[in-house]
Design goal:
single chain; 9 helices; 225 residues; TIM Barrel; alpha/beta; 8-stranded parallel sheet; binds pyridoxal-5'-phosphate
Length: 225
């Protein structure tokens, strides 16, 4: 299967998942996760019409960002000494979880670029091994970042724990919790329109619970080595 075929297959999974729950396919956007992939792979996806790409590792990302006029999303862990390069080179950040980082990104976002779109990463399972804000810390975070002008917080993002093969788990449950959290905050924070959730294995469950961005690597580019 080529990258083009894979994107077509992912698009039809997204359409079917939307149809199953009565959502408009245009409400769900596909983020192609290109971490560890070559710029040739990204170019092949661009030729197939893909616009948005997600990267986790800044150094690996920058050579692609410089070369290719795509829309770039940062989806990795953010070290505070790397915020300037993120503010200068990305349109979206899905992994905001520190007020200090938010303030730095706001200050460092160049004036000639549009406002930086960001999503708060939420540790929806309270998994000690995962990064992200705990559910209880989200509203305090939003209150502490209301004044930022060059950074817009437009939704929530999560990476749920992987379901164990031997356990009967409801894979929709963590996605439902993120949606409920977003809905509970939306009257105070109307910009919170997005939910970034769902990857290659669970995009259907995430779409059923309201994902507006699905982040897909393996199903587009193949298994990572
Ligand atoms: C790698 C990665 C993905 C893509 O995962 P796949 O299972 O390959 O689709 C999505 N989101 C984040 C944050 C990632 O790091």
């Amino acid at each position: 299967m080529s990258i083009t075929d894979n994107i077509d297959a992912v698009d039809s999974r997204i359409r079917s998942a939307c149809q199953a729950v009565g959502r408009a396919p245009s409400d769900v956007r596909l983020l192609a996760v290109s971490k560890t992939r070559t710029h040739e792979d990204v170019e092949a996806a661009m030729v197939a019409g893909q616009v948005d790409f997600g990267e986790n590792y800044l150094q690996d990302a920058l050579s692609k960002v410089e070369r290719l006029a795509a829309t770039w999303h940062f989806i990795g862990a953010i070290q505070s000494n790397k915020t300037r390069l993120i503010a200068e080179n990305f349109s979206w950040v899905h992994t905001l979880s520190s007020v200090k980082v938010a303030k730095r990104l706001d200050t460092q976002r160049p004036d000639h670029l549009p406002v930086l779109n960001t999503l708060l990463q939420v540790n929806i399972d309270n998994d000690p091994a995962k990064s992200g804000l705990s559910v209880d810390d989200v509203s305090g975070f939003l209150a502490g970042t209301r004044d930022l002008e060059r950074l817009r917080i437009c939704g929530l993002m999560t990476i749920p724990a992987r379901a164990q093969a031997d356990q009967i788990t409801d894979i929709r449950a963590p996605f439902a919790r993120l949606r409920e959290l977003r809905d509970s905050l939306r009257s105070d924070y109307p910009d919170l329109t997005h939910l970034s959730m769902g990857m290659s294995e669970d995009l259907e469950a995430a779409i059923a619970e309201g994902a507006t961005w699905v982040r897909i690597g393996t199903a587009i580019f193949g298994a990572r080595t």
